[in-house]
Amino acid sequence: MHNAKILIVEDEGIEALDLQNRLIAQGYTVPDIAATGEEAVKKTEEASPDLVLMDIMLHGEVDGVTAAEQIRARFDIPVIYITAYADEDTLQRAKITEPYGYLVKPFRERELYVTIDMALYKHKMEKKLREREKWFATTLRSIGDAVIATDHNGLVTFMNPVAEKLTGWKLEESQNKKLTDIFNIINLYSRKPAENPVTRVLVEGLTVDLANHTILIARDGTEIAIDDSAAPIKDDKGNITGVVLAFHDITERKQAEEALRKSYEELDARVKERTAELEKLNQALRVEIEERKQAEEIISRQTQEIIEVSTPVIQIWEGIVSVPLIGTLDSMRAQQLMEQLLEKIVATGSLVALLDVTGVPAIDSKTARHLLETISAVRLLGAEVVLTGIRPAIARTLAQLGVDLSNVNTRSSFSAGLLHALTLLKLRVVNLDCAD
Amino acid sequence: MTSESISVIRIHDVLLVTMPPDPDDTSVTILQEKVLNAMERYRVKGLVLDISAVQTMDSFFARVVAETAQMVVLMGGKTVIAGMQPSVAITATQLGLTLGGALTALNADLALDMISDTFRRGR
Asked: CB A351 to CB B110 under 8 A?
């Protein structure tokens, strides 16, 4: 890594200059040279080099190890120690500061460059690794699901904030505790402890989902419905080195489901209620229909009776029957009239029937046809019909309709008809005074 | 009903035939034959056809009766159909059946009155 900025810390001026020249010749930049420990820290801060070449033995209060310690802690800049000699104690101290290299004077030029490049590379890689770790940690911290990781013995190694919140345990408290101590789960219905997923993962080596209706009992006794899964953490060789458990709070979902179920039940109950009401209404309607049917039957029977009553066939003299027609003569009534009239004629042996239409408001072609039919039926029996009560209006209608009544005895009034009937029977009405 | 069972009876100057309850086509045809023969053989004024027992009348029967009546008229007599049941009269009317020149009477008694002076009641 050329062009890297290297700070030299060396109390021997000539040696420092020599080192500087050699580094520059090799393509590095040397922004400054420090002669003491304090100066080294100060100039590191000012120049922010990529690397520090540090002589362990320095004049002054602060030696190279102490200065390196401060630089490492404050600036995260790699340090390579250079020394001519060192006692065991100093070396031990130097080791603790995690130096990136250690050059013993006199060293060869090539050795210097290799050590510098290695240190720069190692530092770069470590930085990258730290960033990745940080990124992963941040990711785990920021996801919405609770995550707990354990080692291969089921001891907790990591918890994210969501997991801390749900379980009620802090990461610091729970580290190296058994998962079962902080992740206490039971079945919602049986209230019995649920199977620990971590144990299963460690045994089976597969990802497992937790059974439904799992309740997590937090540290303070709060019960939380959860939904979760556990997966093994494997190393490059496929050995299980731990388990990662991810779960989340489904209380709200459960509540929503419950609410949905309740509202469904309510709806169902209401539908049933309405159905029952409708059924009741239906029944009432059926009863009403039945009642109406009966009423209709009564009306129809009464209609029949009225028709019968409305066409009374009366024998008004021996050999003469009379029917005063009142109201409209429809087919049904015409049939009724015909039957009754014919029966009466046969029963009384009447030769003349007086059919009086005074009470008929109007005669149309249909009514006229009914009348003609009745007349011809009466004639088939061997009796005669006298149609009476032909008012001017009816006479006009009959003429205009072209009803042929030329073969029928017709009279305008009932009394004229009666007189005609008597004549047909060869009877005569006489005034007794005149007869005397 | 066999045709033999229908008899044409002469009483004075009138032929009297009583129809069975349900006359078939053959018997009415034979009846016509018998009546015409009797008309020729006896000096009679007419025919009285008593159908008071008949419950149903079809168009064939009606036509034969109408024809017979016309023939009797042509041979110088009268035909009177007597005692038609009301139900038969209604059916006949509704079917539009006519009896041609035949007269009608409520019963055989009145029918005889209509034809013959012999039977006319004194008034």
From this structure: yes
Q: Flag the least confident range among A84-98, A333-347, A373-387, B39-53.
A: A84-98
The better pLDDT of the pair A93, B75 is held by B75
Q: What is the pLDDT of residue A47?
A: 84
Query: Which architecture characterizes domain B3-115 according to CATH?
Result: 2-Layer Sandwich (3.30)
> From the candidates B84, B97, B121, which should be mutated to test the interface with A, based on the most A CB atoms within 10 A?
B84
Query: Does the distance separating the beta carbons of B81 and A349 come in below 8 Å?
Result: no
ipTM of the complex model: 0.82
Instruction: Find chain B residues with C-beta within 8 A of A349's C-beta.
Output: 106-107
Q: Is the dihedral of CA B83, B85, B89, B92 positive or negative?
A: negative
Cβ distance of A380 and B104 shorter than 8 Å: yes
- Residues in chain A within 8 Å Cβ distance of B111: 382
A346, HSE (Cβ side, Cα atoms, 13 Å): 18
Q: Which of A299, B29, A343, A86 is nearest to A94 (CA)?
A: A86
The whole-angstrom separation of Cα B24 and Cα A133 is 122
Residue A341 per-residue DSSP state? H
| Burial class of residue B104, CB neighbours in 10 A (0-12, 13-18, 19+) | buried
Dihedral Cα A31, A35, A39, A44, nearest 10 deg: 30
Give me the mean pLDDT over the A170-189 stretch. 84
Nearest-neighbour CA in chain A from B6: distance (Å): 22
Whether A148 and chain B come into contact, CB under 8 Å, resolves to no
Please write the tens of the pLDDT for every residue from A73-121: 888 888 888 887 667 777 787 777 778 888 887 888 888 888 888 888 9
Using beta carbons and an 8 Å cutoff, which residues of B are at the interface with A? Answer: 80-86, 88-90, 92-94, 98-99, 103-107, 110-111, 123
Distance from the Cα of residue A89 to its chain's centroid: 75
Mean pLDDT of A247-270: 88
pLDDT digits (tens, 9 = 90+) for B59-74: 888 888 888 888 888 8
- How far apart CA A268 and CA A272 sit, in angstroms, is 6
pLDDT category, B101, cuts 50, 70, 90? confident
